[in-house]
Amino acid sequence: MTTRTTALYDVPGPTTRRRHAVYAVLSTAVLLGLAAWVLHLLFSTGQFTATKWMPFEYKGIQELLLRGLGNTLKAFAMAAVLSLALGGVLAAGRLSDHAPVRWLATLVVEFFRAMPVLVMIFFIFVALKVQPLPALVAGLTLYNGSVLAEVFRSGVNAVERGQREAAFALGMRKTQVMSYVLVPQAVRAMLPAIISQLVVALKDTSLGFLITYEEFLHAGKLIASNLDYDLPFIPVVMVISPIYIGMCMLLSWFAVWVSRREQRSPKTEAVVVAAPGPGAPLPGGEPPTAPKP
Amino acid sequence: MNVLTDNFAIYAEGFLGTVELTVYASLLALALGFLMASFRVAPVASLRAFGTVWVTVLRNTPLTLLFFAVLLGLPRFGLVLPFQAFAVLALGCYTSAFICEALRSGINTVPRGQGEAARSLGMTFAQTLGVIVLPQAFRSVIPPVGSTLIALAKNSAIAGAFSVTELLGTYKTLSELGYNIIWTFVWIAVGYLIITLAISALFNLLERKWGVAR
């Protein structure tokens, strides 16, 4: 179906179809060869020996992994809730009628968006001597809150102008216009972008590993460096990564599903629903998550 | 203030490390991303599937996990490279997934009629691609590619935690030397701001010169 939507190809004729079939056989052979080579490499370096997979049978180690997963999810839940709150506050600041409030909010948002989240986390952890979990959550909150503020703001700005004008014409105050008219539509439209940003937060909880927070990757590292099981590093990666990637994929698919649903919803007629996907906009520029109707 | 002037050499080394990492990883990401984007729009189903899997998996992989797997995992297969090369590999592969999506959506913004018109003028596939489709796609991919490369520069901080010489890693040396930790971080932050703002300025320039005017 992909070929249909690009300007690159016509509908293929019989000769082209034969040619494509040859390409298909060749490329499939190459890809299968690649997969076989990787498998051979795994077997020849002895990654599937019983000793290396034995640790996963022990209850203690399973509990260690589950505790790590629990800590990851705990950090994610805290960071998600706090960054949504901070995003709301900063977006309100950026949309304020008072210039100093607007400047301050803009400064905060632009600064934390331009700063690597890891630098923030290390600063809080090393310089302010905070415990790993609060340091991780605070760093993630500052970064994701700033990005979410931009998402909220662009959502509010993307609502059709007539909505705001009609609300003001009915005699609503600015707070009422915002809370009854603009924000509900903006949040609906921006829900996919918001969920995509939460995927970023979930991925970034793994940065806790670097500041010795006992999360999922940390548990994996503990098992991987165990000499009794012949340093089962590759098995650990093969167990941990599907779980991590699976969690992020579920959340990403949820964003896509929400996006489809909201596009059909009659409640988003006055605003364009954002496409899911991480919107990491240029600092100082207009975020790409703000499609104008 | 004297944290910077006393240790200018250490900061400069870290700064250059980050710049090097960013440049090499950007080149790798652009090349791989282009390859994957061409896979994703190819008329061959197996290549399309490979591109889709590459993008979906890498976009949903935490970068720390990828660094962990590449820097500590690949040596188990007898592949021994300097840590910096591994870091470039991890960063480049991760970012290539985002570049691929940016390029693909850029190609999809070119109206079908453009390709149809080119073909009815008798242009070959290579001509259609090189003269008609890619130049137009290039115009609309400048901003998303710019944001992706800025994200790459920021993500390169993770390499510092895996003992690659770069800007964030300098804090360890400086705090061992007993300098004020807060000022150490202020100058690290300034270094990152310089890099991200430079990339941002570069892409704003490109955007102004070649940006889409539709």
Structure description:
The complex is a heterodimer of chains A (293) and B (214). Residues 279-293 of chain A have low confidence and may be disordered. Chain A has two domains: 12-44; 56-268, MetI-like fold (Orthogonal Bundle), CATH 1.10.3720.10. In chain A, helix 4 (59-94) packs across helix 7 and helix 6 (117-127) packs antiparallel against helix 7 (132-158). Chain A has 293 residues and is mainly alpha-helical. Chain A has eleven helices and no strands. Chain B has one domain (2-210): MetI-like (MetI-like fold, Orthogonal Bundle). Helices cover 81% and strands 0% of the residues of chain B. Chain B is flat. Classes of the chains: A mainly alpha (293), B mainly alpha (214). The interface between A and B is large, with 61 and 72 residues.
Short précis:
With 293 residues, chain A is mainly α.
Average predicted local confidence, pLDDT of chain A: 87
CATH topology of chain B: MetI-like fold
- The rough form of chain A would be described as flat
Basic shape of chain B: flat
Low-confidence stretches of chain B: none
Order of helices and strands of chain A: HHHHHHHHHHH
Largest sheet of chain A: none
Count of all domains of chain B: 1
- H/E topology pattern of chain B: HHHHHHHHHH
Could you list the spans of chain A in which at least 5 consecutive residues all have pLDDT below 50? Answer: 279-293
Which pair has the most extensive contact? A-B, 61 and 72 residues
| Most strands sheet of chain B | none
SSE arrangement:
The complex is a heterodimer of chains A (293) and B (214).
Chain A: H1 2-5, H2 14-44, H3 50-53, H4 59-94, H5 99-114, H6 117-127, H7 132-158, H8 161-169, H9 174-204, H10 216-224, H11 233-264
Helix pairs in contact in A: 4-5, 4-7, 4-10, 5-7, 6-7, 7-9, 8-9, 9-11, 10-11
Chain B: H1 2-6, H2 8-40, H3 45-59, H4 63-73, H5 83-109, H6 112-120, H7 125-155, H8 157-161, H9 170-176, H10 181-210
Helix pairs in contact in B: 2-3, 2-5, 3-5, 4-5, 5-7, 6-7, 7-10, 9-10
